Each structure stands twice: as structure tokens, then as C-alpha cells.
Amino acid sequence: MENAPIVKTFFDAPTWTFTHVVYEEPGSQCAIIDSVLNYDPKSGRTSTQSADEVIEFIRHQNLQVNWILETHAHADHLTAGSYIKKHVGGKLAIGKHIQEVQAVFKNIFHLEDAFQANGSQFDHLIEADEELPLGNLKMKALFVPGHTPACMAYVIGDAIFVGDTMFMADVGTARCDFPGGDAHALYKSVKRILSFPDETRLYMCHDYPPNDREVVYVTTVGEERQHNIHIHDGISEQDFVAMRTARDSTLEMPVLILPSVQVNIRAGEFPPKEANGVSYLKIPLNYL
């Protein structure tokens, strides 16, 4: 297919997260989608091993970083977007509705007055259906709310990078019980993705393989329409919402939700250092 991108995928095993580098050829422009900053919840220490692997690949391929994209403010891993930008450049971008997410979590975490819930921490706020330049590749942003009110998917050539809207067919779809989540909206968002041609490649942000199968990061629209356990063809919106609501009521909070969201709404920067020169994250007790 014309303008089909090359995709190099990196897997962060502790968070089951895929980071994708999307480009046309060595030496071309590229986009980095959903990067990972390593975080140890026991010690509170961060490291950059996963991000450094991406940076090494970009330099080896002589790629020019045009975009460092987030599909949403993740609750299961910290973004390395700011770190990567400092080393290889690029514009940090996320959907414009991040402002709603920032406003909610500024209140939940009682963040400092100076924190602006206006998306200004990012270089660019993406509009629904906006086309983003990426060399000779065609890239379009899809607004796909439901998991969060700010989720975006990115259509690049014959591939869609779906974020957390959906997973491999035997895993299903994203939870909708975070602040601003909406199962009705998620149903419509996934159906929009699945309206693309059957051969369209779908790149996952996560995989949680059941029954000891190997980790997989790419599938197709046709495969998902036939076999997705939550939203295959024939599943009504009413049935989906009932299933999603019941399932979400049984799920625990992600292990890294509290540190992740605080860093991710800041585009990967840490909270301002306090008088002793240390940055701190907050844990709201008995709130979530």
C-alpha cells in the first residue's frame, strides 16, 4: 500500500507497554508514540532504560523526530516524552481534551496553584481529525474518547495506533471507570476504528496475554471485527455498556495510576522541586 509506514516497536515488560517509532525510511522524519519512563514504585526511583533504547534506534537510523505523541494521559506507566525531546528533539503533542483531564486531577492531587490546566505543558494540542505533517506519510488524529475523555488514535498510512481504546481480540477493550470515562463513548470510538478497511493494521499500546500466549502488538480491523471478545460484529451498544460496566466494577486500580497521572499531565516533567531540592508525588488517601 502506498505510504505504508515502517513501524519499530519496543516492549516495556514491567508495564506491558508498547512504544512505536513510525517512519518512512532511514533518514526520514518519524513519530514516537507512547514512550515509557521506567519507575520503581517501591523506591520511587525513575530510570531511562526503555527510552534510551528508543533514542539509540532513532540515532542509528538517522531519523528526524517530528512528533512525540501521547494517545492519552496514561494511568499505567509514566511517559518519557520530555526526556526524549531533550535528547532528540520533536514536538510533544496530545489531544486538546487533556485540559479536562488536567482540571480533574489538579483537584484530586491538590496541585500547586502554578500548575495550569490548559495543556500548556505540551508543544501542541491536537484537534479531532487534525492532519499532522510527517514527511511523505499521511497522519491523521482520531478523537476516540471513552477510556478517558481525551483519548486519541493516530492513523498513519495503512496503520492505526489505537492507544488504550482496545486490545488484542482475546483481551477486549479498555476500562471506562476512570474520571471522565464513558462506556457509550468508547463503543462509538471503537466502532469508528473498526470502520476502516479490514486489512488496516492496528497497533496496540498494551497487551495482557491470557493463557500464556506470547505478547503481540499488532492485529487488523478484520480480526477484531470477527473475534474481539467485547465488541465483535453483532454486539450492540447496550450489551457492550452493560458488560463494560459490570466488568469495570471488579477491577482494581492500576499499580502506577497515582505516580503516572501526576507526571503524565505534566508532559513527563516532575513536579516542581521543594525547598530541599527534591520533587514529590502525592498519594490522596481514601479518594480513588
UniProtKB/TrEMBL annotation:
Residues annotated as domain Metallo-beta-lactamase: 18-206
Recorded GO molecular functions are:
hydrolase activity; metal ion binding; sulfur dioxygenase activity
Q: Which UniProt keywords apply?
A: Hydrolase, Metal-binding
Q: Which InterPro entries match?
A: Metallo-B-lactamas (IPR001279), Mito_Persulfide_Diox (IPR051682), POD-like_MBL-fold (IPR044528), RibonucZ/Hydroxyglut_hydro (IPR036866)
- Kindly give the CDD domains that the UniProt entry links to this protein: POD-like_MBL-fold (cd07724)
**UniProt record, GO biological process:** glutathione metabolic process; hydrogen sulfide metabolic process
Q: What SMART domains does UniProt report for this protein, alphabetically?
A: Lactamase_B
Keyword set includes Glycoprotein: no
Concerning Gene3D superfamilies, the annotation shows:
Ribonuclease Z/Hydroxyacylglutathione hydrolase-like
| Protein's name according to its UniProt entry | MBL fold metallo-hydrolase
Species the sequence originates in: Polynucleobacter paneuropaeus
Lineage, uppermost ranks = Bacteria, Pseudomonadati, Pseudomonadota, Betaproteobacteria, Burkholderiales
